[in-house]
Write a sequence for this structure.
């Protein structure tokens, strides 16, 4: 079903994309409503409740991929990239994407990586409670106790401002997508992020002249088929440091090295400390030689990694890349985008280094 614009007074409406999640669940027990049922209902509610003097026009961007966000894959992430890219090419700039909270920060960070260098404005949101009140079964009504309606309206306001970049809006706040992580499994204030200067705001252009915008779009389209193909084979793994024999970590890493070059997130203690063994050091060297990218991140939710401690700095002698202050979702997103966008391990590593050098958070050379 093609969903028409609910308001047609503006020449450049916000494109609203529904991708599933708790936001559209309803009934007893809670079950996601089909797009054919939920989207017209949401259309009607927006038309009835929104003050059109405060919000711009809204149109629907048809999306065929609606699923629980915990089931999303790299190919699904690519689907949303292609959907947005096509709409951007058609002249749309402002978007709001509604998705599930399980992988909301991962999807937001991925799209932020993918649209770096553009002037696209995208706000990603969701909810911890369904929009519709399941206590009222005779008709679809907004649940006044839910966070869904407020999250949607705030996201529309953020998108209306039109600032370039990908943001996540949740619980009355909004942040650059690469800084966001989920910190609570069921509270309405489930996400947090930050608005530090420079990264990632410098990834976007405030306003692109038509010629430069077309060049950017042409560059994306030139590799679009390759991106889709690679998404079917791309893998990003996570290895979690625990108080075990370091050789146990080495064994886990060795099991990944038989694959084609992939991304590996090494979740260290504290500021990125990783238990040392000569076997693990040799395995890290082998991972580099075989084209894998190993990124060190912290298990701590805040602060990132550094080379202040010998317990962590040794790994950088074996081509591990420091994740800096990037969140785990942001590291996953960057690794995945590099695997999709670039064809060789050398180019992926060069692009990671170039991107991080922009931020001032690199680990100094040893």
């Amino acid at each position: 079903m093609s969903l028409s614009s609910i308001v047609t007074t503006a020449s450049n409406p916000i494109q609203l994309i529904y991708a599933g999640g708790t936001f559209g669940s309803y009934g007893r027990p809670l079950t996601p409503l089909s797009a054919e049922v939920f989207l017209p209902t949401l259309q009607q509610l927006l038309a009835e409740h929104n003050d059109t003097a405060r919000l711009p026009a809204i149109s629907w961007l048809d999306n065929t991929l609606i699923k629980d966000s915990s089931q999303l894959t790299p190919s699904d992430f690519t689907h949303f990239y292609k959907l947005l890219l096509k709409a951007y090419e058609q002249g749309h700039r402002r978007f709001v994407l509604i998705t599930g909270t399980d992988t909301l920060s991962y999807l937001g960070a991925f799209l932020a990586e993918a649209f770096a260098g553009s002037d696209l404005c995208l706000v990603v949101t969701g909810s911890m409670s369904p929009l519709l009140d399941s206590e009222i079964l005779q008709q679809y009504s907004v649940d006044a106790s839910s966070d869904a309606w407020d999250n949607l309206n705030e996201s529309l306001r953020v998108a209306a401002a039109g600032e370039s970049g990908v943001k996540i809006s949740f619980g009355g706040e909004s942040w650059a997508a690469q800084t966001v992580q989920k910190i609570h499994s069921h509270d309405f204030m489930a996400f947090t992020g930050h608005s530090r200067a420079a990264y990632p705001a410098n990834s976007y252009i405030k306003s692109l002249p038509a010629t430069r915008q077309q060049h950017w779009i042409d560059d994306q389209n030139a590799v679009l088929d390759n991106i889709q193909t690679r998404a079917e084979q791309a893998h990003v793994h996570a290895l979690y440091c625990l108080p075990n024999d370091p050789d146990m970590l080495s064994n886990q890493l060795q099991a990944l090295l038989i694959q084609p070059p992939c991304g590996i997130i090494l979740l260290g203690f504290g500021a990125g400390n990783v238990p040392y063994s000569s076997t693990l050091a040799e395995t890290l060297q082998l991972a580099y030689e075989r084209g894998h990218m190993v990124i060190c991140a912290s298990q701590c939710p805040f602060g990132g990694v550094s080379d202040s401690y010998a317990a962590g700095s040794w790994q950088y002698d074996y081509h591990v890349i420091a994740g800096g202050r990037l969140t785990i979702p942001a590291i996953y997103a960057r690794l995945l985008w590099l695997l999709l966008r670039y064809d060789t391990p050398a180019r992926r590593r060069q692009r990671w280094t170039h991107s991080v050098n922009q931020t001032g958070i690199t680990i100094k050379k040893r």
Summary: The two ends are 58 Å apart (CA to CA). The longest helix spans residues 74-89. The first strand starts at residue 14 and ends at 18.
